[in-house]
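Morning. Coffee machine broken again, so started the prediction first thing and wrote up yesterday's gels while waiting. Chain of 108 residues, entered below exactly as on the submission form.
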Amino acid sequence: MKIFVAILSGIAIGILTSRYIFVNSALGLIPWTLVGLLLGIWAANRIEALRLGALYGFFLLFSFMFGGYQGAASEASRILPFAALGLIGAAYGLIVASIGNLLHPKQS
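Came back before lunch.
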């Protein structure tokens, strides 16, 4: 369930920030980061936070690039380069979800 939410959140935020909100603005990083932090807080442990963050970040950047693409080359020819950039998004997701997990109040 959490994995599905992380993937769906990444796709939704990626498309929204490429087409509708904070277009061509660094302010798009605000919702990207907030969602990543929330996923890290929601995770039961650090390993789950890393998994959720990586999936979120990959699908976030992939859908951001794919959703905003308006080039002359076919979209099918852009899948591989966008997937490679998605790995950078996965690293971003790992970082913000890890920070979110550190912010999670631990039960004693």
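The chain has one domain: 2-103. Going to sketch it on the whiteboard this afternoon.
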